[in-house]
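Repro:
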Amino acid sequence: MAGLLLFCAAAALQLLLLPAAGWAIPPPEEAARMARFVLHNCDWGALATLSAQEGLRGHPFANIFSLSDGPPGPFSGSGVPYLYLTDMEISVRDLEINSNASLTVSLAQTPYCKKHGYDPQNPLCAHIIFCGTIVKVNDSEVGLAKKALFSRHPEMEGWPKDHNWFFAKFNITNIWVLDYFGGLKIVTPEEYYSVKP
């Protein structure tokens, strides 16, 4: 029986090590690398704010946003989730009142989970939950944010100028990784930024 369990565990680990987006997914014991990997391979995430809207004030409000931590390709991500926002957007209005938010990204949006038959809720279809705040990037970081976002989302360059778009980033304070059985793993921002995806 122990041999069968060991075989099953090894088979599950082998599935995790198969290429996703052209390179190998990190093993489950490397939670910080997994967080970097998932963010870098995702083009969008679910951003949850505390609503400031009439009738919803104080309630969680989740919305989809395009994001990028750098141009596509292995080892080219900074780990910083950049966004392109406008004050006209309902979630951005929430952030003007309270900049706290959470951001969830999942490998379910890549071919990886479908290829292996993983439901998005299956822990093997890794997802990461970031908590922190959204802030406008300063002038010295605009170039990085622009390159990160426009390399993955070229349509953004043509969005209406009168919407007053601006570059923002998610300042990460807490990270939770769900990439294997046994529950969430906590990764510190220091651990997260010290590794490459």
